[in-house]
Amino acid sequence: MKLRSKLFLAVALFILYFPIFYLMYYSFNSAGNMNHFKSFTLDHYKAVFQNKRLMVIIVNTLAVALIAASVSTVIGICGALGIHYMRNKQLKVGLLTLNNILMVSSDVVIGSSFLILFTVIGHFTGLGLGFWSVLISHIAFCVPIVVLLVLPKLYDMNQSLINASYDLGASTYQTITKVIIPHILPGAFAGFFMALTYSLDDFTVSFFVTGNGFSVLSVEIYSMARKGISMEINAISTLLFLLVMTIILVYYFVSNNQEKKRKIKAGVAK
Question: How far apart are CA 202 and CA 240, in angstroms?
Answer without folding.
Answer: 12
